[in-house]
Amino acid sequence: MLVVEDDATIAESITARLRAEGFAVEVAHDGPAAVAADAEHEPDLVVLDVMLPGFDGLEVCRRIQARRPVPVLMLTARADETDLLVGLGVGADDYLTKPFSMRVLTARVHALLRRVERARQDPEEARIVLGDLEIDIDRRRVARGGIPAQLTPIEFDLLVHFARRPRAVQPRERLLSEIWDWDVRELASGTRAVDSHIKALRRKLGADLIRTVHGVGYALEVGP
To answer: With b meaning 16 or more CB within 10 Å and e meaning fewer, what string describes 72-89?
Structure first.
């Protein structure tokens, strides 16, 4: 586990709680140190503050995701929607707005790790082809019309979820529960995360890929 936070008090609190949960934790306090620590330790998950010296958490996220896919829980001091959408757009899987409780943080960490473990152990088909959309689940690669697309871990899992249920409407709450593994009490606060990742999939694979069902959720439109 890698914790990236320039506030020493917050970093110590997060680190202590995660170690109490049984995780091995490395800490970095600025952008360059975070990228170096990720390359050296290859953590299973990164807890990443947005505001950092050197360069910010958004740039850290871009750089580590370009090197290898890793779940990122982003911490932000503001609930500004633009900040959240940008963070999710560069590869963060989830976010927390400060101040937050350590109970919520550890719950989100465990949820992200459970999602990754489910993806590794998934016994279903190794490849899905729907029209011009090709998904190689074993190698976690995606192409549409023969053109590869680089997806973040959460974007890939979201696309596979849709592809296994083509044209079926998926409510936002179901996506948050099954993909993010969020507790039912948190579902109402997570709709922006779903919407942001849908926008990213449309941008990378085509605006016609996923249909919005207003007031409900989304459905994958591509099919045989």
So the answer is: bbbbbeeeeeebbbbbbb
